Automatic annotation (TrEMBL):
It comes from the Bacteria. PROSITE patterns: GST_CTER, GST_NTER. Residues 83-204 form the GST C-terminal domain. Residues 1-78 form the GST N-terminal domain. This is Glutathione S-transferase N-terminal domain-containing protein.
């Protein structure tokens, strides 16, 4: 398998962490989708990463689709439960984490996209996205409470999604002091970063 993506993307990192936890072999192909010479549309018509290329050149995209598929490839470290209620809980955690990343990316693009003049940037839009990021992090903290992991007592996709989202927020928005405000999330992330899957995929 080949994974096309960026080392800075939190969605790509989520897939890479899952692949490491599942002990799956793959080739990582770095791609800057914002570069003028990007070829990502040849694999994903939406021009986004991550994109997983399977044997036979078949492409799969969207991190949620990819990680669900990867979890079926190996019985090692099952990350998504089979039971409907537990499964829905894990997928809801993933949706919350992805929502934080979605809002953060919209915020960052509005603030930094070089093809937009400073006079064209909307502070109200950026404030709205920041509120979503901070609100989502507060919801993560409330949902985690004093549990060892987001969805019970074992690592699941919930924790991987949350860890990748928070790691990206720290990477792109260091002024957001989520660690100081949510000690339980900081404790969870410190525990996650002891795992090689997280330590080896730090955003850069």
């Amino acid at each position: 398998m080949k994974l096309i993506g960026s080392a800075a993307s939190p969605y790509v990192r989520k897939v890479r962490v899952v692949m490491a936890e599942k002990r799956l072999d793959y080739q990582f192909i770095k791609e800057d989708v914002w570069a003028d010479d990007t070829t990502i549309s040849q694999s994903n018509p939406l021009g986004k990463v991550p994109c997983l290329i399977m044997d036979g050149s078949e492409a799969m995209f969207d991190s949620r689709v990819i990680v669900e598929y990867l979890d079926t490839l190996s019985p090692v470290g099952k990350l998504i439960p089979q039971q409907s209620r537990e499964r829905a809980e894990v997928k809801t955690w993933e949706a919350l984490a992805d929502g934080v990343m979605d809002a953060g990316i919209l915020w960052r693009l509005e603030a930094t996209w070089p093809k937009r003049a400073d006079t064209e940037r909307s502070q109200a839009w950026m404030d709205r996205q920041r509120a979503k990021v901070e609100g989502g992090i507060a919801a993560m903290s409330k949902g985690l409470g004093d549990k060892p992991f987001c969805s019970g007592i074992h690592l699941s996709l919930s924790d991987i999604a949350v860890g990748c989202a928070l790691g990206w927020v720290s990477f792109r928005f260091p002024d957001i002091d989520w660690r100081g405000e949510h000690a339980n999330l900081a404790k969870l992330c410190d525990k996650l970063h002891l795992r090689p899957s997280f330590a080896d995929t730090m955003p850069a």
